[in-house]
Amino acid sequence: MFARNSEETTASRDLNFVKHWVNIYPRLRTYVIALLQDVNDAEDILQEVSLEAIKSYSSFDPSRCFQKWLFGIARNRVRRYYRSKKQNSNLIFDTDTMLLLEAGVEHSQDQLEAQRQALRTCIRRLSQHSRYLLSLRYTQNRSAESIAADYSCNANTVYQRLTRIRAKLRACAHRYFEQQGA
């Protein structure tokens, strides 16, 4: 029985790690690329960060912020990278600069998530036909010509309809942010 509980606990921790990692990875990637200015080097560092995070996750304190913990690992890996490359010292960011970059990445990701939430809310408020038209165009990647053929109209009509829908979404998002106080 103890072994099963231990396995369940390990599986639960692994699942929590994956959930957190997937949520934070885009921010972490943006941060590391900003520090290194080279996507290939950043991808290498991100692999190292993921390995180190996986290895040390069992000692991670769940009361701490997972993102700050990961960014700390990344910050240390980037420092180590610059030391190993013996880069010019003016290319190495000091801790304060790295923390400012972290805050900037976090803020921009928060803004992006707020915009996505506004868009989801506004799309739900559209008519079913408008949502379907958006789905055809943007989810199914259908051309205006292809959609027009389905509706026996010309592509210009589809373009005009999509333009009106996008204008409604913009206005709705603007109102959404006004109501949110953003």
List keywords for this structure.
182 residues; mainly alpha; Rna Polymerase Sigma Factor, Chain: A; Arc Repressor Mutant, subunit A; 2 domains; 82% helix; elongated; disordered N terminus; sigma factor activity; RNA polymerase sigma factor CnrH; sigma factor
Number of helical segments with 4 or more residues: 7
The total count of strands amounts to: 0
Structural domain tally: 2
Instruction: Give the C-alpha Rg.
Output: 23 Å
What is the third-level CATH name, the topology of the largest domain?
Rna Polymerase Sigma Factor, Chain: A
Judged by helices, strands and strand pairing, the structural class is mainly alpha
Return the CATH architecture of the largest domain.
Orthogonal Bundle
How far the N terminus sits from the C terminus, by CA atoms, comes to 52 Å
Question: Could you name the CATH class of the largest domain?
Answer: Mainly Alpha
Overall helicity:
over 70%
Largest sheet: none
Q: In CATH, what is the homologous superfamily of the largest domain?
A: RNA polymerase sigma factor, region 2, helix turn helix motif
Q: How much of the sequence is in beta strands?
A: under 5%
